[in-house]
Amino acid sequence: MPKVHTVLGDLTEYLDYKESYLRAGSFKVYRLFAFKMREFLSVHNLSHLETKKVTPAQCEQYKRFILKKHSDPTTRNKEIGQMKCFFYQFTKPGWERYRVSPAANVELVPKQDSEMHEPYSTEQVAEIFGAILAKRDYWLLLYIYFIHYTFARPGREVRFLKVGDLKPRALLIRPENSKTRRTKTPTIPKPLEELIGYLSVKNYPLDWYIFGTDGEPGPIACGQNMYYYRHKEILKALNLVGRYTLYGWKHTGNIRAIQLGVADRELQLQNGFKEHRTLEIYLRRLSAYYSTEIYDKFV
């Protein structure tokens, strides 16, 4: 008697496959998807549903299940996209349950721009740097400099940097830490290079994390909230209220580079954008913060 392949059984196999090559942080997304899919199957009495008998209508039903759970369009689309990827997997050689996925025509919800992390004004930059220097928290300043000058993201891209990732005039952001899963090699501008030299970062072992658990380079990376907290304390002391975060320094750096006349191609490479179109979209979102054309001429 041929084996009956249920959605629940195939879901387990799908998770095992994903876990075999994804890092823990990435795999977590699939575990959460599986949790919601199992909940959906249970609520609708579909626990014994065979994968090959899943219908487009049931996929639409799962979409409505997600829409009730989440209101944010980006989150909704990520969840719906997970479902579409799951069923598409079973159209591939060695996985076949269908020729065409039953979720193929399930549409995503209309997109909208997410609220952006606020960039810092020139005055705010001076105020924040002044407060950090007054506290002599040079490692927080270095953390910010990496974001501000190399356009690295403040999570894994900065937190997991190692001393050996500091190359002559360039920074190596490894694919396992990069959001895009590609190697990035942004240029290290002079102010960042000088602070790295002042703190003697390159004198530490090459395999040590630049931001270790003790507030300086060490064999173990700092916790994910360590510098977020120290940065937040500075903002709180200065009464800076709004969507001001460490990520905002990436936007601030881009704006400053634009104002100084850095070419688009250099901006694209420094950001690690594969396509110029991605840079265009990003700059469009930033334009309100750096464009002086309307301000100066519309009088």
Automatic annotation (TrEMBL):
<keyword id="KW-0238">DNA-binding</keyword>
<dbReference type="GO" id="GO:0015074">
    <property type="term" value="P:DNA integration"/>
</dbReference>
<dbReference type="InterPro" id="IPR010998">
    <property type="entry name" value="Integrase_recombinase_N"/>
</dbReference>
<dbReference type="GO" id="GO:0006310">
    <property type="term" value="P:DNA recombination"/>
</dbReference>
<dbReference type="InterPro" id="IPR013762">
    <property type="entry name" value="Integrase-like_cat_sf"/>
</dbReference>
<keyword id="KW-0233">DNA recombination</keyword>
<dbReference type="GO" id="GO:0003677">
    <property type="term" value="F:DNA binding"/>
</dbReference>
<dbReference type="InterPro" id="IPR011010">
    <property type="entry name" value="DNA_brk_join_enz"/>
</dbReference>
<protein>
    <recommendedName>
        <fullName>Site-specific recombinase XerD</fullName>
    </recommendedName>
</protein>
